[in-house]
Specification:
Chain lengths: ~400, ~90
């Protein structure tokens, strides 16, 4: 049995060898792109595809290497470590999971048209799910018309839409059930406008409006219970979303320690002050404990033991890792002083970008509620007794 | 049989913790529940009348994996929902 940390070292080596240069190049322009709200250039996304990064976790039938969830999580951790663009891992995870869900449809036509090009990085994809509404009150709707359907509605936030040619779009049908379609950017009636979020500005998010968009029947990916389908997507994202930030937190800790060792105050390196050492120690504990929790959840998924829609261990791992990553960034700012505040363009951006992790794929608050409800549901039942005062 | 509710689903049945219906199967019980509380239909059922997989059920305190509409129920049975929807 391979020790998990040996495996991590192996993965770190092959990520550096296969994609290290590309990841550095993508991160090299992130400050300017963050200012301009631009995703990585299309040429670099295509390079990620042709270098096999997008296909790595996909099935071999579409050119992938079918690596398991633990390996993919470790790859993401290393991407986060090597790439200064917080949004890049999120963009590729959306594309990969969209490809995976379409692959699971088993439809050759959809696989040929969408999954293969996505795996090769020939075009991008976004998931058009989020609305300013609960899942049972969506206002994006489809109605049957002739041999196809007509789609109308608005999605205010679609990650990576700026660089995407196709959108996996969720809408309510005439019976009130959620269904999912592949909608193409150049379908008549589709309009895409850049969104202006406070963070993750290099993810290329957009609002999309659908005005009487005609969709042929063969664009249906999910004909019923799309809610469960979407929850599965979010369940994957919940896990992947925390892996790359963990790698970035590791890089921040190392950069912090290097800088503090070279920064002298009152005649001695800052890294030698006991209070600074204690902070670095707490940051180390946060990273190691978050990694242990994430690897536990990734292993559970890799072994096929995770629950389909809402896995409590995956949710707990995301919840915990996000809190630890944010703690590391807060501590980094505290020990870096003015340098962290005005001397580097990166730390503040990471803090801004990773604040969004508390909302992604279920807010931390709703995860607490769901996890607690699960604990109650699984608890043993004692006879209910009424207490008289 | 008796449905027991809490959280979001309890609000959909007028804040009642329990609702009793007469039915011999889960499918019939869900259909009767949806007829009493029409908004419940789109929350619980997909467009083929099956319970959405986003809702798990507990039958007399035990999780049931992939319950079908044919799941038999008796008058004493108690069905609870565990709904864990997040993100949107």
């Amino acid at each position: 049995m391979v020790d998990v940390m040996d495996r991590r070292s192996e993965v770190a080596g092959f990520v550096r060898d296969r994609w290290g240069g590309l990841l550095t190049e993508i991160g090299g322009t992130v400050v300017e792109r963050d200012e301009a709200r631009l995703p990585p250039p299309a040429g670099l996304m295509a390079a990620a595809g042709s270098a096999g990064l997008l296909a790595l976790s996909l099935p071999q039938q579409v050119g992938g290497e079918n690596v398991d969830a633990l390996t993919w999580g470790m790859v993401l951790e290393q991407i986060g470590y090597l790439c200064q663009d917080s949004a890049f891992p999120m963009i590729i995870n959306h594309q990969i999971d969209i490809a995976r869900l379409v692959w699971e449809s088993g439809r050759d036509d959809l696989i040929e048209r969408y999954v293969v090009p996505l795996a090769q990085g020939r075009f991008g994809a976004g998931i058009a799910y989020t609305e300013d509404a609960d899942a049972f009150s969506f206002r994006t709707e489809v109605h049957r018309k002739g041999d196809g359907f007509v789609l109308s509605g608005h999605k205010p936030y679609v990650t990576a839409a700026l660089g995407s040619e196709v959108f996996l779009t969720f809408a309510l049908d005439e019976a009130g059930d959620m269904v999912a379609y592949m909608v193409e950017r150049d379908d008549p009636g589709v309009s895409v406008v850049a969104a202006e979020p406070v963070a993750m500005r290099t993810a290329g998010p957009c609002a999309i409006t659908f005005e009487d968009v005609f969709l042929p029947a063969d664009r249906i990916v999910v004909a019923s219970d799309g809610l469960t389908h979407a929850q599965r997507f979010l369940g994957f994202q919940r896990l992947w979303a925390a892996c790359a930030p963990l790698g970035r937190a590791q890089a921040v800790l190392e950069e912090c320690a290097t800088r503090l060792a070279a920064t002298v105050r009152y005649g001695e390196p800052l890294a030698g002050l006991t209070s600074v050492e204690a902070s670095l120690g707490r940051m180390y504990v946060a990273i190691e404990s978050a990694r242990a929790m994430l690897y536990h959840a990734l292993s559970r998924v890799a072994q096929g033991r995770a629950e389909l829609v809402f896995d409590p261990v995956v949710a707990a791992a995301k919840y915990f890792a996000v809190e630890q990553v944010r703690f590391v960034l807060e501590r980094a700012l505290a020990v870096s002083g003015g340098h962290g505040f005005y001397g580097t363009p990166h730390l503040g951006r990471y803090m801004r970008d990773f604040s969004g992790l508390t909302l992604l794929a279920g807010t931390q608050d709703i995860l607490e509620v769901n996890l607690g409800a699960g604990v109650v549901a699984r608890a043993g039942r004692l006879p209910v007794t009424e207490h008289l005062s | 049989m008796q449905f027991e509710f809490n959280g979001m689903l309890m609000r959909t049945v007028g804040n009642q913790h329990t609702v009793a219906v007469e039915a011999d199967t889960l499918g019939d019980a869900l259909a009767e529940l949806a007829s009493q509380f029409p908004h419940m239909k789109r929350i619980l059922l997909d467009n083929s009348g099956q319970l959405r997989q986003a809702h798990r059920i507990l039958l007399n305190g035990e999780f049931v994996t992939r319950p079908g509409n044919g799941l038999p129920l008796s008058a004493q049975d108690r069905v609870e929902f565990f709904t864990a929807i997040a993100g949107g």
